[in-house]
Amino acid sequence: MSDENKNNKLMFSVPLIIFFLLCIFLFKGLFSNPRELQTGRLGQEMPAFNLPDLMQENKTWSEKDLLGKVYLINVWGTWCTTCLVELPYLTKLRERGVEIIGLYLEQGYDPDFDSEFNIQALRNEVSHMLDRTGNPYQYNIFDLNRSLAFDLGVSGAPETFLVDSTGVILLHHTGDLNERTWRAKFAPKFTELKEVKL
Predict the structure, then answer these.
(1) Alpha carbon distances (Å) from 98 to 108, 136, 155, 188
(2) Which helix (H) or strand (E) holds 27?
């Protein structure tokens, strides 16, 4: 075969290969769930953090405080209407032995424009909301500057992460956690880790 024929075949096959790869990519995207965004931290340890407790003055939490237990991290805020719907179900999960730690995101704060933040007003708002819906949280980590949320790849609220006793993130869910999602996605892994049927 001459060099010219080889070059012609190559010129024909390269666009064809690119076309097939593009078709595969688009076909995969056609059947994916656009709401199901996954964090890039799956299979990795919780990022390092040192953040205050939302409700307790002078109390801080770090990733080391979470080691040795299987838990959910639930990203939420009083401004989030879907969180309001989700809280009663999360409270039921807590009553069934699921440890849930809140990661509170404050939407209305911008460090470039807000010099002061009224923490007491927020605490009152949180207490009022949790009194109405039930309180699923062991405690709430206050992520005012969204540093931990950024490290986790959080895109909004609510979002939920399942973390094992060694601090490794195993599952991530965007949107509200409800009975259907819990049964299909979280319960099998949680049961395996805790050896408890939920």
Answers:
(1) 30, 9, 24, 13
(2) helix 3-30
Question: N- to C-terminal Cα distance for the chain?
Answer: 67
CATH class of the domain whose range is 50-194: alpha beta
Instruction: Please list the pLDDT of the chain residue by residue as tens digits (198 residues).
Output: 555 655 566 566 655 555 555 545 444 444 434 444 445 689 999 999 999 999 999 999 999 999 999 999 999 999 999 999 999 999 999 999 999 999 999 987 776 776 678 999 999 999 999 999 999 999 999 999 999 999 999 999 999 999 999 999 999 999 999 999 999 999 999 999 986 444
Strands 71-76 and 100-104: parallel
Q: Taking CA 88 as the corner, what is the angle to CA 98 and CA 37, rounded to the nearest 5 degrees?
A: 70
Q: How far apart are CA 94 and CA 75, in angstroms?
A: 16
At residue 35's C-alpha, the angle toward residues 30 and 37, to 5°, is 95
Domain ranges of the chain: 1-32, 50-194
Helices (H), 80-118: 81-95
pTM for this prediction: 0.78
3-state DSSP call for residue 192?
helix
